[in-house]
Amino acid sequence: MTQPKRAALIGRTTHLLATFRRSARLGTRTHVRLYQWSRGRLGGRWFGMPVLVLEVPGRRTGRPTTTPLIYLVYDGAPVVVAANAGSPLTPQWWLNLRAAGQAWILIRGERQRIRPVELGGDTLTDAVARFESAYPALAEYRRHTDRRFPVIALRPVRRS
Questions:
Q1: Given its phi and psi angles, is residue 147 left (phi above 0), alpha (psi -120 to 50 degrees) or beta?
Q2: Which of 52, 142, 147, 148 would suit a FRET pair with 125, their CA atoms being 20 to 30 Å apart?
Q3: How many distinct structural domains can be found in the chain?
Q4: Phi/psi at 55 (nearest 5 deg)?
Q5: Distance CA 83, CA 141 (A)
Q6: Residue-range definition of the domain harbouring residue 147
Q7: Helices (H) and strands (E) in the chain — how many of each?
Q8: Model pTM above 0.85
Q9: For the chain, first and last CA: distance in Å?
Q10: What is the residue-level pLDDT of the chain in tens, covering all 160 positions?
């Protein structure tokens, strides 16, 4: 199967799965538990991309929520895209993270406090190009919505 056909298939499949909220939630919880239990050995990759687990307090409840996210390292920090598999809705994890201003990430068993920095300008353009090169299904997600996908660097919080 050619790379563009594979990317389109991955994009369509993950978009379709995300529309079934109940099964998506169960799949997410299972993925997070396997990732945490195995320190990233299980669930540490998604269609070739590395996975991290984001833990952020809910903006309404304050209870911690966990979400597995694909990422790439750009300018020394993990970068994630709030694509929500092409859904017209902004992902809850991004709304919670933006409201909280800080969160925790787990990468291969290492937990780190982070703050989100939304990318813009030339940095955004370059990061998106790199992300689409590594994960071509992102282009397929764009076909499902007119929503702009925020691209977020997860910068470490320095201890004072």
A1: beta
A2: 52
A3: 1
A4: -120, 120
A5: 7
A6: 3-156
A7: 5, 8
A8: no
A9: 51
A10: 676 666 665 666 665 555 555 556 777 788 778 778 888 888 888 888 999 999 999 999 999 999 999 999 999 999 999 999 888 899 999 999 999 999 999 999 899 999 999 999 999 999 999 999 999 999 888 888 899 999 999 999 987 6
